[in-house]
Amino acid sequence: MKVKHYSVFEVLTTNVINWNGLRNEELESPYFLPNTREKYLSKVQAEQPSDYVLKMIEQMKKLGYKRILSLGCGIAQTEYHIKKESNLEVIVSDNTESIQRLQSYGIFDEALSLDILKDDYPADEETVVLMHRIDTEFNDEDLKHIFKTCKTHGIRHVFFVPTNPFVFKILLNEFKTLIISIIKRKKRTFCGYSRSKSSLIKLWRGSYEKIYEYRDEKSFYIIELTKKND
Ligand SMILES: C[S@@+](CC[C@H](N)C(=O)[O-])C[C@H]1O[C@@H](n2cnc3c(N)ncnc32)[C@H](O)[C@@H]1O
Prior knowledge:
By secondary structure, the chain is α/β, with parallel strands linked by helices. 35% of the residues lie in helices and 23% in strands. The protein is built from eight helices and nine strands. The two termini are 24 Å apart.
């Protein structure tokens, strides 16, 4: 199942999601990327690392990785905890201007301005790729293209954290957003697509196959480069 995904923001009322605006607007608290290193650290340290983050680190180490590239990292809270709780080299990337702030804080090994659809990935078979809740951002063709690009780079494993892969929860969330928009009299902003697990699997098929699934308060899948040719 795939449905259009909407959100209602505090102050930003664009028709389509504007990540540069959200990362720069303090009133959009969950999305805001603070302007100083101290404020950034207090924001990302506010929560303890979740069990799924520790499980991801364990699995990355088990697969023998020393380096991770995160695509579309946003405020990079998960990546911060991965960096803090492991000795992995952590490279974060995003295509918003706020990535320059992250780079200036000197917390990650690198913070790169990278457009997932257009730019080359600084990654090879020695690098594990993290896609953390970026699935909503892209249409099906683009997501297939992203997995093919990973395949072309010889990336053996992708840790894929789906935004919300459960049909019931997807429908409930979209319904809640509609009700909130009516109550608050605010426009809904188009934020891409919500997909169920079966819809996601179809998009990496031919390039990758799922070899591991963690399912708790948050899910993640480890997908492995397929040995079969398309
Ligand atoms: C839903 S947010 C997820 C952010 C973060 N990974 C998280 O889980 O909190 C999607 C992120 O993808 C980034 N993004 C969208 N399109 C992109 C593109 N073409 N290249 C790189 N990043 C992109 C956005 O800037 C945004 O930070």
